[in-house]
Design brief:
Elements: E1 8-11, H1 18-21, H2 25-29, E2 36-40, E3 45-47, E4 55-59, E5 63-69, E6 75-81, E7 101-106, E8 108-114, H3 115-124, H4 126-152, H5 155-170, E9 174-175, H6 179-186, H7 190-203, E10 206-210, E11 213-216, H8 218-224, H9 228-232
Antiparallel strand pairs: 1-2, 2-8, 3-7, 4-8, 5-6, 5-7, 9-11, 10-11
Helix pairs in contact: 3-4, 5-8, 6-7
């Protein structure tokens, strides 16, 4: 089962999530009163690979990583989602086990709705269908460039890219993030991350690295990162536009 230990905070507060904020009131009403705001604690698991999806999450802030779990226990992050998108959105197509594990790596809040209710709203609303289509396109870009980056670029450049991705989503230079989480995201051993962080500190790309908290220098970190950060940043795919609401049929 999906992680369901998240405390409810208030009723829906969709303004923090760009995908929900772009919906017209009539389309947002399709999601109904079941859309609730919950706290996303650091390291919370929203769904594990192989589990049925119970909820769709629309982050207001913070960052959630989508992880691939290998049989030998190794993990690697394939994408990061913040306030620009949604987690478990493919449940709109139909009930099926999750292919990935979703872990909160930077704490925040999110709007949450049951997958069943979201699927019903998706089937009724062309605007929700179009918003999801735009998000799917953005996520495919992340997956494609992420796969190429993992295969071709040095691990230090990939670490810089992930730190920048997280920074883009939280909007400030101090990240509440452990080296253990970074090792899981990169698919490398913890000592490797320790060495890489030491190198980034020496270059000035990281100003401090206290336990569980990393302060970065964005401009210097960009000089270390590969070009994939520019292509994969949330703004790269442009804002959601509802002018094409007819692009996906309402008859799903």
């Amino acid at each position: 089962m999906a992680h369901d230990g998240l405390p409810a905070v208030t009723c829906s507060s969709e303004a923090g999530n760009r995908l929900l904020a772009e919906l017209r009131p009539a389309d947002l009403d399709q999601l109904g009163s079941e859309l609730q705001t919950v706290a996303l604690d650091q390291d919370a698991v929203l769904v594990r690979a192989g589990d049925e999806v119970d909820y769709v999450f629309f982050p207001h802030n913070g960052a959630i990583s989508l992880m691939i779990d290998m049989a030998n226990g190794q993990t690697v992050a394939t994408a990061t989602i913040g306030r620009e998108g949604a987690v478990n959105f493919l449940s709109a197509i139909g009930p099926s086990p999750s292919a990935m594990t979703a872990i909160v790596h930077v704490a925040g809040t999110a709007s949450r709705i049951s997958a069943v209710r979201f699927r019903a709203a998706f089937n009724r609303s062309p605007a929700i269908q179009h918003a999801l289509q735009v998000h799917v396109s953005a996520m495919l870009t992340q997956f494609q460039f992420g796969a190429a980056c993992n295969a071709l670029h040095p691990v230090e450049a990939r670490l810089a890219r992930w730190l920048l991705h997280l920074r883009d989503r939280v909007g400030h230079d101090v990240l509440a993030l452990t080296q253990e989480a970074l090792s899981q995201m990169l698919g490398v051993r913890r000592p490797t991350v320790t060495l890489l962080m030491r190198n980034l500190r020496a270059s000035g790309a990281i100003r401090s690295d206290r336990r569980g908290q990393i302060e970065i220098d964005r401009s210097r970190l960009m000089a270390v990162s590969c070009e994939c950060h520019h292509t994969m940043r949330p703004e790269a795919c442009g804002p959601i536009s509802l002018s094409g609401v007819g692009m996906m049929s309402a008859s799903h």
